[in-house]
Amino acid sequence: MKNPPALEQLISALKVLPGVGPKTAQRMAFHLLQRDKQGADKLARALDMALTRLTHCQRCNTFSEAELCPICADEERRQDQLCIVEMPADLMMLEQAKCYEGLYFVLMGRISPLDHIGPKDLNLDKLLPRALDGKVSEVVIATNFTAEGEVTAHMLSELFKDRGLTLTRIARGMPVGGELEYVDLSTLAQAVYERRGVS
């Protein structure tokens, strides 16, 4: 027996989430429809609101409802440091660790040839003028210590080499293969404090 088209469409939509396969998507769909219609409605409205209201911050490229996100709009932050991260979740982890007082740039990805993501897909056209605005003196590369993150870090170090900026990379206090989003706050803070120059 086939599912009704509307149910199949919901299951298919849930499968776009990372780590969600066909069976998990089906379980989620049945749960939302059978046990939590109010939650399903709340989810639908929140997703619709996020899609219509959110855009990218003009300076750091993270998600924002305004032209500038609250971090970029905060004049108390250090204007001479620019920390480059892969995703907004990485930015949030650094903020929770309270170990960095500068500004950010979010690439919205990392170089991953297997996923057909190259340097052209990482908003470098926004990053370069941002980093070379005359205020930034240190670029902190805070990509993840995965194979893709290391390739991205190398590409960034080549991009900024000989541009008159101090280049640093967060220290490997983080586990190899680890991602910022999942690291405990004290380990992340130590990695930022022990960042080193990039040659």
Description:
- The protein is an alpha/beta fold and 199 residues long.
- The chain has 2 domains: 5-53, Helicase, Ruva Protein, domain 3 (Orthogonal Bundle), CATH 1.10.8; 75-197, Dna Topoisomerase Vi A Subunit, Chain: A, domain 2 (3-Layer(aba) Sandwich), CATH 3.40.1360.
- The chain has 8 helices and 7 strands.
- It has helices at 5-14, 22-34, 37-53, 70-73, 88-97, 124-131, 147-160, 185-193, and strands at residues 55-56, 63-64, 81-85, 103-106, 138-141, 166-169, 196-197.
- A 5-stranded mixed sheet has the order 4-3-5-6-7. The protein has a two-stranded antiparallel sheet with strand order 1-2.
- Helix 1 (5-14) crosses helix 2 (22-34) and helix 5 (88-97) crosses helix 8 (185-193).
- The longest helix is centred in the first third of the chain and has 17 residues, at 37-53.
- It is elongated.
- The N and C termini lie far apart (62 Å).
- The model has no long low-confidence stretch (mean pLDDT 91).
